[in-house]
From TrEMBL:
Compartments, record wording: Cytoplasm
Quaternary structure, from the entry: Heterooligomer composed of large and small subunits.
One GO BP annotation of this record: DNA catabolic process
Record-level GO cellular component terms: cytoplasm; exodeoxyribonuclease VII complex
Organism: Tepidiforma thermophila (strain KCTC 52669 / CGMCC 1.13589 / G233)
Alphabetical list of InterPro entries matching this protein: Exonuc_VII_L (IPR003753), Exonuc_VII_lsu_C (IPR020579), OB-fold_nuc-bd_dom (IPR025824)
Protein name: Exodeoxyribonuclease 7 large subunit
Amino acid sequence: MGPTDQVLPVSAVVSFLREYVEASELLSDLWITGEVSNYSQSQLGHRYFTLRDAKAAIRCVMFRDRMPRGFQLQDGDRIIAHGRITVYIQRGELQFDCDFARPEGVGALAAKLEELRLRLEAEGLFDPARKRPLPRFPMRIGLVTSPGGAALHDVQFVLRKRWPLATLVFAPAMVQGELAPGQVVAALRRLAAEPDLDVILVVRGGGASEDLHAFNDERVARAIYASPYPVVTGVGHETDVTIADLVADVRAATPSAAAERATPDIVAVRRNLEVLDRAMASAVRQTAAGLAADVEAAAGRLRRSAPRVAELQAAVQALARDMEGCIERQLQRERARFETMAARLAALDPMATLRRGFAIVQREGGRQPVVSSVRGVRAGDRLRVAVSDGAFWTEVR
């Protein structure tokens, strides 16, 4: 059995058709217009209806979370809708999965712009919380605009007048026509690669609404969102608000206003610096005066708390005299004690006794060498006799 003879189940055929249809780039991003009929709403809030014209009809579904706020459908409405073609497998039917709808009278361009705005808003590209503050004193400013437009000259004039200290980094791009979105995106990417930029200006002068198409392009919106530097837009007239304005960190009404929003006024800065200079000088003088007063007060406290040298010297001298008197009295007492002890020792000195004519008689050898009695000697004993100026030997007979 060849490939053409292969028998397939219904589910395989319908699944193949669904994959084939959903793989189509055209059918996955489609705008169609027609009249609503057979409109119904499920308990879950999903909308089901048919879009038809004089020759054909297609079943449509709009799930609850995709219904635009404030927009209602009913039979007989003529609408323009965005979505994708898919296949409802259970019935094998083509179905338009609708994610956006507006009355047909709005116009296709306005409807597409509204759909893009709602989708980017849902993604958070317009969220005020993600918008970055502008630097107070930008020194390198990127600029995306047409090299031949009045917007370039307007921005240059404002920068020369308000903030001539800044360097302008120019990335030229077409701002009108079919090639404009791609060139604006390329210019933003070039500036994103520049080192040390402070802010980027994306500007163009006024024109008709269709002339601003490049700034309602999804690619431009995402390039602004991806910029590593804050972006200020000034597109068209004051009443014109584009998708780029909604994504930018700051939206200005005109190119000149964008340059003004991005820079300080050098005259005001100089005036503020002069005021600050005077305030700082006054503050320094006041601080110096306060410190001088503090030093003088501290010196006064030191003088008052300093020791009175003359009084202390007199007190020291009085103490010295008292100490000398105490020492002298103590020496006299000790001298008297010494003399008393010396007299007592002198009275006990054996040499003094000898000087008075007495002698010490000692026997040679023996256990009791000193002779204190005649009974302590015998005939023949040798005796040593010590007198005051010497000693001599004698023998008992």
